[in-house]
Write a structure and sequence with these properties.
Elements: E1 9-13, E2 31-35, H1 39-45, H2 48-53, H3 56-64, H4 76-91, E3 94-100, E4 107-113, E5 133-136, E6 143-146, H5 151-168, H6 174-182, E7 183-186, H7 192-200, H8 206-218, E8 226-230, E9 236-240
Antiparallel strand pairs: 1-2, 3-4, 5-6, 6-7, 8-9
Helix pairs in contact: 1-3, 5-6
Length: about 250
Amino acid sequence: MQEKFKVPTETIELPSQGKLYEDGSELSKGIVEMSYMTAKHEDILTNINLIRKGTAIEAVLKSLIQSPIKYEDLVMGDRNALVIAARILAYGNDYSIEYTDPETGNRETHIFDLSTLDHKKVDISLLSSKNEFHFELPHTKNTVTFKILTVADDIKIEEEFEGLKKVLGVEPGRLTLRLKHQITSVNGDYSTKTVRDFIDGGYLLSKDSLELRRYMSKVTPDIDTEITFKSKSGQEVTMDLPMSAEFFFP
């Protein structure tokens, strides 16, 4: 039966340009078709249970995406770009940000233009559909491979974090936990046990870890959410754009 009412859609370009997805997959096209938000989506964003679980934005994005993709396959930077696009399509470019003026200490409001956010500058030639990168740790000379994390990976990390917190009674280290999921091999050994033993056993030096994370950031496609503007007193303010469920409401 033909739909009586239609909701417009827009084509959104992904920061990865589709380079990290399998050749021939829908995501390898580097674009995603999204519909505009409706009042029903606002209901999702204000659902107390979803807000407590931290899944309100994910539920909305899944509903908005019209391309035949699996949401969990998106790399996190592409997912972030879709969040920004969804907000712009819903309420326009203007976004009100609260900040503390560094000179006066007063809480102030700044109107930021979301359309000025750019994709992070990444050497696209370094990306491949295998989503695998090689890096030699500069100090110990161990070689590792790693991947750019997807939504599915991020969910697994959060589930393991919460599970360990319950078992241990304290919060586990997020940095090492994330590396355990992102590093895929050490010196050619792709077993999960080897990767975790390498990190937990103290073989990953902090200075090697720092250089590895810098390189990971260098090759990770994303949207640049660090913003800079002048405060009311004329001071320069730099902050990361907040992207909680409240981000969608003007």
